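Preliminary data (for renewal application), S-adenosylmethionine complex.
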Amino acid sequence: MTDPQVPGLPDEPALAAGAFGDRLPQARRFVELLATDGVERGLIGPREVPRLWERHVLNSVAVAEAVPHGARVVDVGSGAGLPGIPLALARPDLAMTLVEPMARRVEFLGDVVADLGVEWRVVRGRAEEKSVARAVGEVDVVTARAVAPLPRLVGWVRGLLRPGSQLVALIGASAAAEVPGLVPELTAAGMRDVHVRAVGSTLGDAATQVVVMTRGGR
Ligand SMILES: C[S@@+](CC[C@H](N)C(=O)[O-])C[C@H]1O[C@@H](n2cnc3c(N)ncnc32)[C@H](O)[C@@H]1O
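Predicted structure:
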């Protein structure tokens, strides 16, 4: 069970067990770390605490169905670890790297990785920096949530993607409506097969949409 000592932390949704399987205890621990250290260190607003499970953790897990088995995933602009940490907990087949430029956030991510006893890498820097691409290495999928408008995001992550690698970005309904109009610009930036996909239909209110695109070229 979630620690009843943490004020405002909502009951764990029944769906969490199915989403995380035998990693449910680590998912609970992550929620507790977000609600305590995450709030104290200013990474999560206190008003977000009651909705950590649905709006943040399960919403992040929804991305899983758009990520191929065994992929090397880089979560760009991970912040407090969203969507990368819930995604990697729900999908132990993935190799996860969390990229984040802000020192305070990087420190929190490192602490979470150590606390959970997992093997994910944390890389400090901006996605567009060559040093980050070198540190990250080969990537199959880049994930991102609430990092930048799509054309800017693509410009930042292009250097991480080899031809055939994918960008999977969580977007809200209004941003999804704008995607068709952005296709020419995204295509000119070297991306192909740009499409919006509904994900997480089994996750109740955490169901969401992602935009998926593939880096072109050979
Ligand atoms: C609004 S926060 C979202 C954090 C997290 N993805 C989430 O959904 O809660 C945006 C994050 O992107 C990071 N960021 C901004 N510019 C970036 C860049 N060029 N490369 C990588 N991360 C960046 C910020 O430091 C911040 O942590």
